[in-house]
Amino acid sequence: MLFLRRIAVVFFVFTSFSAAQNSTCPLDFSVLEPFRRPKPDGATTCQYLLQGLRLLYSHHLRQTGSFLPPPESAASCWAALQSSVAGFLPRFDVRSTCGFQTPWISQGCMDITTRSQFESLIPNSSLATTAMRCNTSLESNTPCASCTQSLSAFQPYLSGPSLGNVSDCASFPSIYAAAFANSLGPTDKGTAKCLFQLDLASPTSSGANKVKVLVSSFSVLLVASVLVITAWFWYCRRKKSKLLKPRDTSLEAGTQSRLDSMSESTTLVKFSFDEIKKATNNFSRHNIIGRGGYGNVFKGALPDGTQVAFKRFKNCSAGGDANFAHEVEVIASIRHVNLLALRGYCTATTPYEGHQRIIVCDLVSNDEEGQPVSVADWAWSLVREGQTLDVVEDGMPEKGPPEVLEKYVLIAVLCSHPQLHARPTMDQVVKMLESNEFTVIAIPQRPIPLVACREEIDRSVSSSSGSGKLTSPTGYQAFSFGGDGPSGNTNTT
Question: How far is CA 385 from CA 274, 378, 470, 493, in A?
């Protein structure tokens, strides 16, 4: 009898273990079918799988209220993922190639598993801001930047360790926002692109693709044959006529060396991603000195001890690296009191972080003394704070009416605007100065600096929600340009 009981216990344990091992994965992998599939290379494929898993987490959270699948279903979830990619990557092993471990798919940030646990850690004000900014279509850049900027306020409350970058604390805000803050859901085209960097695949059929390939191949072959025959006849006739004269290669050499000469004219350094990770202590959150919708700013030290700032951009792709490098070279060749000196940049693609673009600037403290300050920036800051008359020197004799002085200050600020198209012509300035009625000019907002901090971007976004322009605090009507002179309502209040 005792022997039979032991056999029954062993059978029960074995059955329970087998059931746990074969637990069905609750993630719906068919959600990923409409999205564009990556090319078969390690870096982009692992990034696609990582972002795809996060989109699946968000869809699962929206359906069930739970962030992650249960631990007993980890093996079956990996098997389901492997099966879903086998159609376009038949010899690609997900876990061994990307370095994922089996338990990671069911482990998350700070042991958070449900929506209520997540919301209990975040202030209600931050949740409300995210719900307001993210509850719209995120296809265009402006609402996407506003939404992702609001999510950066969640990070100080999610300080747990990272577990393989599959469902780490940095990804939980996007997973939550796509599930609940955005009414369109994580599978929406704009939401998937903005929060998970996933694009929908083109709807063309396979038959149409085959026809296009055949037509393109025939056209290329025909053109190549004509070119080869033409080149052969031209070569034969040229060989019979006379020897070729030496070519003047000075113009070609000059064209090829333009970009090289620009690099030589600047001291710009192209840093490796590992060098920047070491300088910022692996992008530690303690090194963050600025947050924004387009990326964070980290402080760090170069090997020689120089303190610098690293601007790490978000949502980058490798397609625009050439233009990015050229623009950085141009900016580095300019010296101006209002521009920080650029030391270098970095463009790289990593298996876990994806494509990276980083610029390295001199670090300038806000309280650093002896730094040159532009008079135009100083006047702009006073006008922006509603202290227009503080620009005028106190000891100036015969100042005149305050309305006239305020008008002169606003005209001066408008004439010194950093964007050329926002400045008036001399004829327009003369007409404004000669006008007997006190009108106030609507001044366009200045562009956000390259290393803008979170407060500057917040201020720009809040101001753009109104008129988007800077006006006088005294209540005068705005003065606008039309044709070759000023026009508009010139009545005063």
Answer: 43, 11, 10, 21
Secondary structure element (H or E) that encloses residue 439, with its range: none
Distances (CA, A) of 427 to 182, 263, 432, 478: 50, 41, 9, 18
**Would you say 60 and 28 are in contact if contact means Cβ atoms under 8 Å apart?**
yes
Structure confidence at residue 337 (pLDDT): 55
Q: Which of 268, 256, 255 has the alpha carbon at shortest distance from 330?
A: 268
* Residue 110 to residue 51: CA distance in whole angstroms: 20
Average confidence (pLDDT) over 51-79: 88
Which CATH number is associated with domain 269-362? Answer: 3.30.200.20
Using CA atoms, how far apart are residues 109 and 67, in angstroms rounded to an integer?
Answer: 10
d(CA 301, CA 360): 11
> To 10 degrees, what angle do helices 402-415 and 426-434 make?
180
Over residues 295-336, the pLDDT tens digits come to: 889 999 998 888 999 999 887 887 788 888 888 888 777 665
Question: Which residues are annotated as part of the binding site?
Answer: 311
Closest by CA to 280, choosing from 346, 340, 329, 339, is: 346
What contacts 98, CB < 8 A, 6 or more positions away? 42, 45, 46, 49, 50, 351
Beta bridge partners of 288: 298
Give the CA angle between residues 30, 32, 34 to the nearest 5°: 100
The b/e string for 51-70 (b: 16+ C-beta within 10 A; e otherwise) is bbbbbbbbbbbbeeeebbbe
Please count the other Cβ atoms lying within 10 Å of the Cβ belonging to residue 153.
18
Count of C-beta atoms within a 10 Å radius of residue 167: 24
Q: What angle do CA 186, 189, 193 make, to 5 degrees?
A: 80
- Where are the strands (E) in 219-283, listed by range? 269-270
Other beta carbons within 10 Å of 431: 16
CA distance 114 to 60: 11
Choose among 380, 450, 467: nearest CA to 415.
Answer: 380
Report CA-CA distances (Å) from 291 to 150, 162, 174, 312: 10, 20, 16, 10
148 contacts 155 by C-beta, under 8 angstroms: no
Alpha-carbon distances, residue 488 vs 420, 464, 470, 473 (angstroms) = 22, 22, 17, 19
3-state secondary structure of 366: coil
**CA pair distance 441, 422, nearest whole angstrom:** 11
C-beta separation of 95 from 104 below 8 A: no
Q: Where are the domains of the chain?
A: 29-196, 205-234, 269-362, 375-487
Which residues sit in the known binding site for ATP? 311
pTM score above 0.85: no
